[in-house]
Amino acid sequence: MRVIASVAAMQRLAGQWRNAAKKVAFVPTMGYLHAGHVSLMERARKLAGPKGIVVVSIYVNPTQFAPHEDFTKYPRDFKRDAALCWKAGVDVIFTPSDPEMYAPDFSVYVSEDRLAKFMEGVTRPHHFRGVTTIVAKLFNVVLPDTAIFGAKDFQQAAIVKRMVRDLNFPVKIVVAPTVREGDGLALSSRNKYLSTEERREAPVLLLALQTAQAAVAARPVFGAKLKKKIQQLIATQPSARLDYVEFFDPQTLEPLAIVKKGAHMALAVYMGKTRLIDNAEL
Amino acid sequence: MRVIASVAAMQRLAGQWRNAAKKVAFVPTMGYLHAGHVSLMERARKLAGPKGIVVVSIYVNPTQFAPHEDFTKYPRDFKRDAALCWKAGVDVIFTPSDPEMYAPDFSVYVSEDRLAKFMEGVTRPHHFRGVTTIVAKLFNVVLPDTAIFGAKDFQQAAIVKRMVRDLNFPVKIVVAPTVREGDGLALSSRNKYLSTEERREAPVLLLALQTAQAAVAARPVFGAKLKKKIQQLIATQPSARLDYVEFFDPQTLEPLAIVKKGAHMALAVYMGKTRLIDNAEL
């Protein structure tokens, strides 16, 4: 396993792989890896095949954080991450520094106009511009055939797929299922921030998804009514504060007035100061 | 020489070239080719080498035109263009349709924030967003090693270079010199719009550049004073109306209060309804 910090070295190596017709599967991450990431790497290993290459990037991307968000305190543990990558059969870790990725007069951004307006885009207005910009950069540096994203960030995966379609990136996007703790909490590097109390209450996000699934199983229901139900459920947990819950078309992400089976639900909940997200098909 | 209209077919072929380690040199155009384009193709032919591939795209890109601009009447002559490409040793013409390039719910754009604010960006506010978006798309479809742009569009070339740097496109940008008519008019597909009278007066753009070069040859001069001089010169031609003239740093494109040798000058002039641009190092 190689660890590469330089953009030029990574891009040169990727160019050699291309010219040798090697399959490259890529997992972009912000590090502090957990079993969710490991499942993405294992998926990448399978997609690349025994002769192919698996690249994992570990980079906490500043442009997707707002000034008041947790960029500086985002958890980092390279040694542990490297061990997990090694165990998962990763060939190359790409871990650039900020000055490698962003020149002082950096001025080019990739932005998505429609899907990014909803949900996370409301609470975090510049977040997705940071995501599409860094993913475009990483695609150009790593030159993957396939890139694997986690389903926990449903809107992010939808926006990356849209970027690939609209800018014609020669990359196939694979979305791998959310990995959960035994009690249903979706794995996230931010779970580390939770107090014991908050951690105990955090499975309420999955409970909310299951409640909505049960509610629409028999017949369509009004979105407004279902929202109220979810709000009440979240309110039962003392540490929890609902940021948003939305029912939407999984292609356009447009909110649905009437929610049926097959619709998608996503929610964001503050547990104390930590913001957790989750989603599911209903 | 092959003519390809489908994005998927072009991208598949480009992928095969990559996997065979073939050098690809690319000239993006809007067609209605002239000797300026031919010089770019010849440059591409040299850069690709005898075993390499030269691709020319012919595509009048709607997203870089404002609604009031000349998108629909922009001159088109594919047969003549194809003959010129053939003569210049082009291997592939890529000529997609609008629906191939832009889905009805297209929503991803590449934009440059700093260099695009000046000059053309003032008169044509969304122009460069259209340019960077289509060039990013074409790079992802054609997968070139090198792309050749004309120096007549100095700001465009600067912005494309910035895009390549900031988004890490694995493409080398080459800027080839402006080709001129005998009387000094820079070649442009839009010259076709000029009446006999306007055509006769059009070399005033080059005269303006030469006047400024002479003015700064001995010592630095105030930008404001030099601007006035150029304004007066343009005003001597009855069909001409100055849109802008700027003296600027060729790296940052920031305007200079004091203009010396080595500074860059660009101007845009309406000849009747036709807008012409030109530029030079002073």
Describe it for me?
The structure is a homodimer of 282-residue chains. By secondary structure, chain A is an alpha/beta fold. Chain A contains ten helices and twelve strands. Chain A has helices at 7-19, 35-48, 78-87, 98-101, 120-123, 127-142, 154-167, 196-201, 204-217, 223-235; strands at 2-4, 24-29, 53-58, 92-94, 108-112, 146-150, 172-176, 221-222, 240-248, 258-259, 264-271, 274-281. In chain A, helix 2 (35-48) links the parallel strand 2 and strand 3 (53-58). In chain A, helix 6 (127-142) crosses helix 7 and helix 9 (204-217) runs antiparallel to helix 10. The longest helix of chain A has 16 residues, at 127-142. Chain A is globular and about 55 Å long. The termini of chain A are far apart. The A-B interface holds A 7, 11, 14-15, 18-21, 103, 105-115, 132-133, 136-137, 140-141, 143, 162-163, 165-170, 252 and B 7, 11, 14-15, 18-21, 103, 105-115, 132-133, 136-137, 140-141, 143, 162-163, 165-170, 252.
Keywords:
homodimer, 282 residues, alpha/beta, Rossmann fold, Pantoate--beta-alanine Ligase, Chain: A,domain 2, 2 domains, 6-stranded parallel beta sheet, 3-stranded antiparallel beta sheet, 10 helices, 12 strands, 38% helix
CATH homologous superfamily grouping of the largest domain in chain A: HUPs
- Compressed to H and E, one letter per element, the order of chain A equals EHEHEHEHEHHEHEHHEHEEEE
**What global shape of chain A is seen?**
globular
User: Strand order across the biggest sheet of chain A?
Assistant: 1-4-3-2-6-7
The overall pLDDT of chain A, averaged over residues, is 97
Number of β-strand runs of chain A: 12
Oligomer: homodimer
Structural class of chain A: alpha/beta
Name of the CATH first level of the largest domain in chain A: Alpha Beta
The number of domains of chain A: 2
